[in-house]
Structures are given as C-alpha cells and as structure tokens.
Amino acid sequence: MPHDPFAGPTWDLLQDLRDIFAYGFMQNAFLAGTMVAIMGAVVGYFVVLRRLAFATEALSHGGFAGATGAVVINQDPFLGLLVFVTFAGVLMGILGDKLRGRDVAIGATLAFSLALGSLFLTVSTKLAGEAVNILFGNILAIAPADVRFVISFACFTLAAVGVMYRPLLFASVDPEIAEARGLPVRGLGVAFMVLLGFAVATAVQLVGVLLIFALLILPSASAQHLTPRPARAIMYAVALAILCVWLGLAIGFYLPYPPSFFITSLTFVSYLVTRQLGPTRLSRGRQLANSAIIASGATHTANVREGVR
Asked: Residue 269 CB: number of other CB atoms within 10 A?
C-alpha cells in the first residue's frame, strides 16, 4: 500500500520513489516532463543564442489565443495551440533579423494575443477551468494519450535540430558571414521558428503560457553562464532542466501546490546561481566565434564534397 503523501516524505529515497511512482498520473508527469525538459533545453539554447527570448514569450501568448479559440469551436485546445504558434513562428521567421529590433511590434502582438484570448473567455463560459490550465499548465493531469503526443513532437523536434545543428549554429552566431558562405540563413530562421512553435505548444501543456520561460529559456541561459562551448552548454542545459523538473514534481507530490511553481522557482534559482559562476561575456563570445568557424568549415567542406560529386 503506498505511503500517504499527505503525511510527507519518509526520507527513505527508495520508499519515497515507490510512493511517487505508485500513481499513474505521476508516471505520466515524469515521462512527459523529462521529454519536454530535454526538448526545451536543446531548442532553448538556440533561442538564447539568437536572442529570441521575448519573441518566444510572444509566441506562447499567441498560443493562448489559439487554444481558447479552439475550445470555443469545440476543437482540441492542443490542436488550436499548435496551429496558431506554427503560423506565428513562420511569420516571425520570415521577418528574420528584423525581429530582433522590433520589440514594440512583438509587444503589441503579445498584448493583442492576450486580448483575443480574453475575448474567447467571455464568449464561452466553459473556458474558465481550461484557461487556468493553458495559462499555468497542469502537468499532473496529463493523460497517457497526451504523453504520446509529447514524446512524438519532442522526438521530431530533437531530430530536426540535430539535422540543422551545424548550419543553425553558424547562422545564429554570425548570420552575415554564414549568408556569404552560401547558407540559407532566412530558410534556417523560418525552420527554427517552426520548431520553436512545436516546442512551445508541447511545453505549454506542462508549465502553461505564463511560465514557458521555465523550460525554454532559463536552463539554457544558465548553461551558457557555465561554458561557452555549444555542445557542452546544451548538455548542461538538459541536465539542469531534467533535474528541475524531477525535483519540482517530487516537491509538488508532497505539497498542495502546483508543480509548475516549483519547476519555475528551481530554474530561476539555478539561473541566479550560475550567473555568478560562469565565464565572462568576452570569453564566451570568443569561444562561440571559434565554434562558429568550426561549424562553417564543416559546412563548407560538405558543400565542396557535394560539388565534386
């Protein structure tokens, strides 16, 4: 018989783990949370590198309007969320580098998305409970079917980032030189924003629209404070994200508060701590530039080989 969670942990690690995983909803939460943590850390690295954190926030708020609109027309909220953020991601990707200097336009889009979601809330009274889940997430209520969706989208997103890794890294660090070398910088930007839309749509189910920074931004930002090397930073980000999700779920299991709060708090604390420990911005910039040169050399070599063939 599982230990009563309201009595608190036993401080016997094995017994506490048995108690936590004795419940199906906790198994679903850990599985989905782990996949989203991995995906969010990998995608989030390039979000931070490309300085698209604010655009990501606007994208997630746009997803709120899409999800609430889908409920109004009796459709799956996840489908509406996915369609809306994918469309917005393509639009932002087409804007390209102009996006980085258009904070006012992004802010206006963010405000309009929230206003549109508010309109849908007033149109349908059945949206009250659904809106809370969309805004703040409800990882403990994720169903097995949702877990399969999360795993599918996470695996697709990770595979796509793996294929694009070297050219995307080069285009993110020095887009002008990458374009001069013949890389499709604009196409890479659009493709990445579509993948970011997939990541946002998947992560919103766990931490909600308002707390999306917890898994898509903070672990990656923390990792970049620790090392300027891209591959190592991604590994650190994945480790931090998984640790924060697991600890947040474990704490939320024993306390009557939402796990998304604990997940967000842990990622925020890790960001504050690593900010004081990492290398200087100058050394990070130099090593990122070196990584970009290596990536460009590998890409150029691949293009030469294709030409010889």
From this structure: 13
